[in-house]
Amino acid sequence: MSIGQRIDRSYGDLSPQEQRAADFILDHLGDLAIYSGTELAQRSGVSKATVSRLFRRLGFENAQEVREHARALRSSGVPVGGVVPGASADLAAHLVREVENLRRMLDSLPAGRLEQVATLLARARTVTIIGQRNGFPLALHLREQLAQGRGHVHVAPLPGQTVSEEIAELDARDAVVLFGFRRRAAGFGRMLDGIASRGVPIVLIADASARRYADGVTTWIECPIDSVSALDSYASAMSLVNVLASSALALRTRESRTRIATITTLYDRLGELDPS
């Protein structure tokens, strides 16, 4: 359990001074990785002995173990605090990190990797896009962008269904794009293996925690999601979606133009878009 869960479970059994230190910890989870026991005691207004006693009650040997625990939580994607965007300095730090994530993603791409994926997305008989949890908005956005210029693009699984129904008819003529960012749903590896066993080309887009799956897919693209805030940032992945979809449509110039014209005509006929 995380330190926050441990505090919640035992809060009622803590002394008033221990509760005071626990309250400070809960309000500053993002800073635990840098605070010493002495600093926590000073900032929470209790004695160092109280902080040490609290740590032992929570199952930690000392402040160093707590700091390591906090670092492990954040690196696994658990929201444990961070800067609160608003101040100019905080927004500047946010911008720097976002740009760095995008640069790291682009620098990690071997020559021709984007072109390879774009060609697959343009030429495959069907494209099935799977994104669970935080990957779902990315999957939906990629589907919407690709669907502007080609048909037979699906997000899976459909509500109430499982992946098996969606991949039963896929083979080497099709393509699957799989978003697999950290804190993946249980069974991710089995799902990937099941798709690969049918000979379907797989594009895996994820952060570094999914590297162990890279050998089991056709193409692997790593997108850093580091953030100065409590939550991971998917800006680099969203940017990648734009590049891949645009590149795929450029490979189907005539087909894309015809489809876009048809869709635009239907927009007008059905009155689906705000004319302004």
UniProtKB/TrEMBL annotation:
Signal peptide from the UniProt entry: none
PROSITE patterns, per the entry: HTH_RPIR (PS51071)
InterPro entries xrefs: Homeodomain-like_sf, HTH_RpiR, RpiR-like, SIS_dom, SIS_dom_sf, WH-like_DNA-bd_sf
Coiled coil: none
GO biological process, one term: carbohydrate derivative metabolic process
GO MF annotations in UniProt: carbohydrate derivative binding; DNA binding; DNA-binding transcription factor activity
This protein's name: RpiR family transcriptional regulator
Organism: Cnuibacter physcomitrellae
Organism phylogeny: Bacteria, Bacillati, Actinomycetota, Actinomycetes, Micrococcales
